[in-house]
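Co-fold these.
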Amino acid sequence: MSVSDSPPSSICMFALHHQSSSSQDSGLYGQHMVFPKTPDGRSMEQMMGFVPYSSCVTPSSSEREDFSQFVLPPPASTLHPSGQKRRPSKDSVEYRQRRERNNIAVRKSRDKARRRVQMTQQRALQLQDENQRLQLHIQHLSHEVDSLRHYLSQRHLQAREQDTAGEDVC
Amino acid sequence: MSVSDSPPSSICMFALHHQSSSSQDSGLYGQHMVFPKTPDGRSMEQMMGFVPYSSCVTPSSSEREDFSQFVLPPPASTLHPSGQKRRPSKDSVEYRQRRERNNIAVRKSRDKARRRVQMTQQRALQLQDENQRLQLHIQHLSHEVDSLRHYLSQRHLQAREQDTAGEDVC
DNA sequence: AACCATTGCGCAATGG
DNA sequence: GCCATTGCGCAATGGT
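Predicted complex below.
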């Protein structure tokens, strides 16, 4: 019904198995997997031959639909047979709540960062304008100083002439 | 051996099954899953009851290790029974190569963005300094103009006094 | 211990 | 088809 009729999306159930070591994790349905990176910073997925899951495409414009019939209440408890201290609370509700809160925090933080960057750019532009204005002001004042100095030197000359003229008179 | 001895990491193999519609994808080992979002922008995973996979933890400082024994060469071909045009090339090699190239491009792009931001910040600071210098310069020039004007007015007074004195003499 | 904030990273969509 | 950019979620980590 509602699931398969939105063309681009498909709902997928899957199981996990792992192959290694500390088998304390119960089966989990993965949403995001992170594999160890090789020291050179390259991914290891290739070595692993893992093929990422990719058919659960985000429906770009999704209508609200009822998926309740698909909701499997998760295992929740996840007993840990070995006495190992259990992973904080990976499975289910608690985990999802933390994830969701973090996603919100991430969005918030990134918006903040974006705004900060924009402000910085804007400030740089403003400062550049201001700078140009100040330089023009300086140019103007410099000319004024030059003019005054020149005028003063003229006055000096005139005064000296007058002095010598006065001496002649007397 | 090499896998399980780095405490925080574990290697996990898993299979996917999906439940819906266009079943043309073969089993995939997912690395990153994106589920459709509800129209309010919130995640739908919760409704689905999916529990994300989370025990494949990134070993913060990984040594180079041999995972070749775990590499399952992926199904690769993925025949499409129905005459549907196949998804560009989801499965395997081709896909992984594109992903890897994109990951590289992403890192590159983000480094570039980071550098750009840093440059902008630095430029803003430089402009701020420059600005302060210019303002001081302006202050200095303004004082100079004031002094010259004051001096000039004094000279005017002196000259006028001398003029009147000269008249007295003659 | 519990939270939020920040950051690096991979995936997918999209732009050029 | 390819690379560049961008939004997004996950997990690690930093700060309280």
